Amino acid sequence: MANNTPAGKQTGEKMRFFKSNTQLVVVVTTALVLPVVIISAMIGASGSRPRATDDMSSEVIEARIRPVAGFELQEMKKGGPARTGEEVFKGVCTGCHTAGVSGAPKFGDKAAWAPRIAQGLDTLLQSATKGKNAMPPQAGGEYSDQEVANAVVYMANEGGANFEAPKLEEKKEGDE
């Protein structure tokens, strides 16, 4: 009768993956320790260090926040010549009209400006000074009516209009 078992194996003895308990311990220990060693080596190589305490000073924090905040407090201009439409546009209007935020017509987009230009300069001026949709009065800036008119004419003309900025009389203190 032929024996179908591998040489040296007794009948009924199971085949094992590990030949000894020592081999099993070595493999399990390696499987647990090796990933920890690799991860700690990767963390050390990345140069990650705790922040120095001077990184938390108010000046350093303010310097990190300033680019995100994106505005500077300025004194309201009194007297002197009115700022040009381009200056006012760059100061406040560009924030929405360059990207078309909240439906604002993009600067220079003739198709978007055409229906607004068709309503006339007076309507555009009223929308800009009083506010319309998402745009607050004077786009949230502190500009004279003349400066707002200059900006509206500048943007509308870049959008295909041929307006001339009106010469507006400024209100004096106490006038309403």
UniProtKB/TrEMBL annotation:
Superkingdom per UniProt: Bacteria
Residues covered by the Cytochrome c domain: 80-159
InterPro entries: Cyt_c-like_dom, Cyt_c-like_dom_sf, Cyt_CIE
Transmembrane portions of the chain: 24-45
Pfam families (alphabetical): Cytochrome_CBB3
GO MF annotation, one: heme binding
Entry keyword annotation includes NADP: no
Keyword Cell division: no
Keywords of the record: Electron transport, Heme, Iron, Membrane, Metal-binding, Transmembrane, Transmembrane helix, Transport
Listed PANTHER family: CYTOCHROME C5, PTHR40942
Name of the protein in question: Cytochrome C
Organism: Lautropia mirabilis ATCC 51599
Organism ancestry: Bacteria, Pseudomonadati, Pseudomonadota, Betaproteobacteria, Burkholderiales
